[in-house]
Amino acid sequence: MTDDEVATLYRAHVQAARAFAVALTGDPALAEDVVQDAFIRCAARRSVLREPAAFGSYLLRAVLNAVRSHHRRRAAERRSLRRVASQAGGTGTAAGEPDLGERDELLTALQALSPRQRTAVVARYLLDWSEAQTAEAMGCRVGTVKGLTSRGLDRLRESYQVREGSDHD
């Protein structure tokens, strides 16, 4: 496909795809990212599409799938952050969702862990991997993962206790 053909497809279909993505996400910046990624994927696969003339429909479908994937990832991230926060002794908002400040503090606390502790905690609680999966990925024993995770969670708890103590001053 030539650059002119790609430009023609872009001009013909991206505006509608962008409007569709904004309607689905409510976020123009996210919509723009989703549409750009979807357009690149669809344009690259145009030669294998069953109906190349239906590129606009394929693009809208790709946008819908990308938005769904984004929402699934965000939901998984929120669940994982809640799980890590509860393991570390954090509380979250009244609705059970971690607030942005708490998320940032958690990410900062994670960065303070040793790389191996951080890897173990993130694999276990953010990725929801088993101890065996984590051990395999890290190239160590399950007992090592247990110890790294335990010490990492202890440090996270300490970080939250320090934060909570400073809130009352």
The radius of gyration over CA amounts to 22 Å
Range of helix content:
over 70%
Q: CATH H-level name of the largest domain... which superfamily? A: Winged helix-like DNA-binding domain superfamily/Winged helix DNA-binding domain
Name the CATH architecture of the largest domain. Orthogonal Bundle
Mean pLDDT: 81
Output the CATH class name of the largest domain: Mainly Alpha
How does this structure look, described?
α1 packs across α3. The N and C termini lie far apart (65 Å). The protein is elongated. It has seven helices and no strands. The mean pLDDT is 81. With 169 residues, the chain is an all-alpha fold. It has two domains: 3-74; 89-167, Arc Repressor Mutant, subunit A, CATH 1.10.10. It has helices at 3-25, 28-44, 55-88, 100-112, 115-126, 131-138, 142-167.
Write the layout of secondary structure elements.
Elements: H1 3-25, H2 28-44, H3 55-88, H4 100-112, H5 115-126, H6 131-138, H7 142-167
Please outline what is shown here.
This protein is mainly α and 169 residues long. Helices cover 79% and strands 0% of the residues.
